[in-house]
Each structure stands twice: as C-alpha cells, then as structure tokens.
Amino acid sequence: MKTQLPMKTFGIILVLVLQCSCNNSEIEDDMSSTSKDSFLKLYKMIYNVVSIDSTSSDEYVMVRTTGVPDHKTPFFGKGHEKYEEYNGDNPNFSTAINLMGTISDPTLLTQSITFRFPKYPAEATTHVSTTGGAFGIGRNGVVYFNQYNGAGAALDDLEINNADQYLGHPTPSMGGNGGTYHYHYEPKWLTTSFGNESFVGFLLDGFPIYGPYENGIKITNDMLDEFHGHSSTTTDYPTKAIYHYHITSATSSKPEILKLAAPYINGGKYYGTKGIAN
Ligand SMILES: [Zn+2]
Ligand SMILES: [Zn+2]
Fold first, then answer.
1. Other CB atoms within 10 A of residue 204 CB
2. Alpha-carbon span 203 to 144, nearest angstrom
3. Distance, CA 234 to ligand 1 centroid (Å)?
4. Distance 193 CA to ligand 2 centre (A)
5. What average pLDDT is seen over the chain?
C-alpha cells in the first residue's frame, strides 16, 4: 500500500511527527488531534483476539482473530465444553440449514482472520457497498456479516431460524470451508455483558459500532443515516461527537420480529473507506 500511496503515507507520518513533537509521547489521547481522529481507546477494549497492532503501520490498525466466541453456543457441538443447548425464544431454531436442497449442519471452526482497519477513518468520497464475509469485528473477536445471505438477498426465515441464543451462527460447510461463526444482528452476549449503550466492535471502515440505545433512548433506523450511523457523543467520547454505527435492537430471535429490525448493523454501504479483511 505504501508504494501505491506515497503522498498519503507521507502526510500521515507528518501528522504523527507533529503530534509527537507537541505531546512528547505516543498518541495517548487519541482524540486530541483536531484534524484526524483515531479510536485507539476503543481498540484497547477488544478482547478474545490473537493480537492488536496499532503501531506497525501508519495507515492501519491490525487485528487478528480466530473468530471463536467467548460464549457458549449449540454450534460447538454436543460434548464440547462450550456447548450449550438452544435456550432462546424461537421454536423453529435448528442448527441444520437446508440450502437449496442441501442440508448443512456445521460446527463452528477456528479461523485465522486478519483485519486492517483504517487508523484514521474518514468519510469516503464514494460510498462502496458491503460484501459477503467478515465486514467487521465484535468487541469479543467474533466477526460481523452484513444484512444479506450468501446469495446477496435479504436474510429470510431460513437464516434467522439458524441463529442461536446469542444471534450468531457459523457459515455452512459447503465445499468444506465453512464454520466461521458470525453475527448479523445484535450481539446479545455483548449487549448483555457490557450494556446496551456500549461499544460492540468496528466495521471494516474503522468506524465503531455501538449498542441499540443511547442516553437511555432506543435507537431506531429512522434516527440514523443511510449507512446506519450518525455523529454524536458516546459513553466513551462524552465531549466530542464521533461518527459511529448503531446495532438495531433485536428483542426476539423469531423471524417475524427480527426482520422488523432490518437493517441491523449497516445500511448496505460503508460510511468510510473500507479496510481489508483476509
Ligand atoms: Zn449468516
Ligand atoms: Zn449514537
């Protein structure tokens, strides 16, 4: 990337040098710069990952994860220490999913995924569409997928009936490379553990995602822009408005209720310039 973007890289280095000469330290207070914001404080809240590297690159913060959740799920399979029988409210839940006549009943598998999030995220000039696969990371290292299924269509009963009590499920084992556990909807484990106004992860463009409430008020899709975000203060940045996404509340895992919450995390395009996940 450096060879492709020499001027941009030079500009970022220059800013860092200026900051360092002012503060005589590393970028400790990551929101002190008037021109560029980074969210290093939030990266420090991410856990259950292999590594977080915010210093090797001037452009990206690198996060490596196995994608294996820190919570239990039926998808670990019976006999596994983190197996937990389904205990949600969807009577049609099934670990098996019938995709165009082929039944897949995957257990979740350890992955090796590297995210490169823009260190200084900014609104993109052209807003590109999200694509399938990992398009963000949860605070607990689990990956987020967008609001579409593998065929690019809206998530339907089939997919929703496969979402466990924490609203996650693995990719199907078609072709032998499935098993990537992911959330499309509110990550119940995170909003229960940390509170429904808390930081719950990053989208691939480096902007943070927050829970379904703010200042005690339930966020609805009408309160957000087309990307499913807005600029305002948050619990972590109480004095400076930051752009962030919100996950829309999922009060039930029944398809008829969950579908009403769509879009769940993002409106279909990134607000900022997307990073890399591979
Ligand atoms: Zn899915
Ligand atoms: Zn907000």
1. 27
2. 8
3. 29
4. 19
5. 88
Look up tokens 């940390």; give the residue. Answer: 194
Peptide bond into 74 cis (omega under 30): no
Q: How far is the CA of 237 from the centre of ligand 1 (A)?
A: 32
Ligand with minimal distance to 215 CA = 2
Per-residue pLDDT tens over the stretch 69-89:
999 999 999 999 999 999 999
Rounded to two decimals, what is the model's pTM? Answer: 0.87
Closest CA to 140 of 182, 185, 175: 182
For residue 211, the CA-to-ligand 2 centroid distance in Å is 8
Task: State residue 175's pLDDT score.
Answer: 61
* Distance (Å) from CA 183 to ligand 2 centroid: 20
CA distance 237 to 91: 40
Q: With contact defined as beta carbons under 8 Å apart, do 246 and 214 qualify?
A: yes
**Distance from the alpha carbon of residue 266 to the mean position of ligand 2, in angstroms:** 13
Q: Give 47-66 as a 3 state SS string.
A: CCCCEEECCCCCCEEEEEEC
Q: How far is the CA of 167 from the centre of ligand 1 (A)?
A: 10
Q: What pLDDT is recorded for position 35?
A: 45
Instruction: For residue range 129-181, list pLDDT tens digits in order.
Output: 999 999 999 999 999 999 998 888 999 999 999 999 999 999 987 666 689 99
Pick from 171, 150, 168, 149: nearest CA to 250: 168
